[in-house]
């Protein structure tokens, strides 16, 4: 009886582990699709005061990183506020489990545009 319970427990544990690995792998692969990139772009632009556009974005759930290449931040009037060649961030996995997106250790080379002033 104990042997049977151990076998059933092992099978259940193995099943849960395989499903978890498949789920994490599926989300990781989805984050590499154009559809996911469009959703990320729309969500970022929804919460910032302006519009952020970029050439390429790479999101790694397994590595906990986000890298954005050749990005431009524009204000509501469409004027260029800042640009950067590369932006690299670590995701807080604890924040993800709480339903929040928290970026840590942000590294970038930012080019800030001079504001245009009427003379």
Morphology call: elongated
Oligomer: single chain
Determine the N-to-C terminus distance: 89 Å
Structural class: alpha+beta
Q: Helices and strands, in N-to-C order?
A: HHEEEHE
Count of extended strands: 4
Biggest sheet strand line-up: 1-2-3-4
The percent range for helix content is 40-55%
Number of continuous helical runs: 3
Q: How much strand?
A: 35-45%
Largest sheet: 4 strands, antiparallel
Uncertain spans, ≥5 residues at pLDDT below 50? none
Q: Could you tell me the radius of gyration in angstroms?
A: 21 Å
Short description:
This protein has 119 residues and is α+β, with helices and mostly antiparallel strands.
What do these coordinates show?
With 119 residues, this protein is an alpha+beta fold. It has a domain at 31-112. The protein has 3 helices and 4 strands. It has helices at residues 2-30, 34-47, 93-97; strands at residues 51-60, 65-74, 80-91, 103-112. A 4-stranded antiparallel beta sheet has the order 1-2-3-4. A hairpin with a 5-residue loop joins β2 and β3 (80-91). The longest helix is centred in the N-terminal third of the chain and has 29 residues, at 2-30. The radius of gyration is 21 Å and the shape is elongated.
